[in-house]
Amino acid sequence: MNKNLTTSVATVVTVIALITFAALAPGPFQALLTTIKVKVIGHFGFLFTYPAFLASLIFIGLALSPLGRLRFGSEPPEFSTLAWLGMLFATGMGIGLVTWGVLEPRYHVEAGLDRDQALLHAFNHWGLLAWAGYLAIGVIFAHALYNMRLDKPAESLLGGGVMSKLNLVSLVVSTVIGLSLTFSYAAEPLQKSAAQYLGLDVSTTWVIVVLSLFAIVSSASGLKRGIKWLSNYNALIALILMAATFLLTAPLDILGTFARLLPDYVLQYPALALDIGFNDPERKAWLADWLYAFEAAWYGWFIFTGVFIARISKGRTLRQLVLGVMLVPSLVSCLWFTTFGIGGLSTGAEDVFALMATLDEHGILSAILALNILLFFVTSADSAGLVCEMLTVQRSRAFWIVAMAALAVVINWLDGDIFKVILTLISVAAIPVAFGIFALVTAFLLRLRQQRATPATIAPADP
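User: That's the sequence. What structure does it adopt?
Assistant: Structure tokens below.
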């Protein structure tokens, strides 16, 4: 119980200091975030994107090689394939896709890009670059946990010394910040839904408090009930919303555009992923606001989501993880943005709630959307609490959920586009996390060189 107490206390102090700074000095807080984003991420954002691009190519190659048969653990998979995919989708970025599906293409079109360019940028921000990072951390932790038998990989791989503990603090803090983003994604639309359907005028703070209670109840029910069941319902509801948007807007246009742009995305993927805006200050500024900001945000989520992926992937093979964690989710993300992007642009809807209200005047789709956001949030917060507990001390999941809620409450007091504020916050917080992740990857590769693979780690060929 006390093994990681010092690390946990340091993490708590860091989170409290962050909350206090944001609450007492919101102006300087936002100014500092903006300065760091422009000066650091704007000039060195390629340090986020280049490793993710390289990882995506490496894992595709590994999946096609005999190493794709590498199995994580010797037992059969703990969860069915559908339940596993549902948990991956719900935890990875389900609520983010719901929020940004209409917003991002509209942002780009209003900035002067044509529709195809807007969708290709959304593909790049939410496709292979994002899921490759989740996959990399998931594979590292799955192999470390189930094949190397390391109890605390985040510390064990780095030797368990002072530097590994500092790294662990940054990883947990980034998870707390990342989930404050999810709280904010969920709070505003649910606040509107409470007013529309229940006639309740509640503040964002109270919505966040109630959401945290839902997440704590889910965490008490256990992984095989709370997260698993809610994730399955989430995936089904999300598919219903996407199908409704597809059928009620422009189905032929959506299909044609998706079939046309997907090959373009694959062909342009290297150029899109490796863009640095060379000798173009305006392009560098755009990258800092979009590609680099999103990729930095994914780094803030890589540990949380990657560790959770490892936790639910015992018994799976490397090939299954490449397909289920990177390729299939990237394909679904591209289809999602095509459907909701075209749906939003064709109807003039400013966000996903406006789109649902336009498609269904009776409010049924809007109610389904509110339920989807609620369930996506609960699964994300519950799984993030689980990961923080795995990285710190036992029986601390509820505390971490409360910490995430407290930070979200303070951030929502800030002025401006709250989504952009939090995206900037998590992007800045990801800077030390990125170096920690690079250190973990290096330590993992060095450990692999020192150990010979045992026969138990190589499974028979996939049927």
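The chain has 19 helices and no strands.
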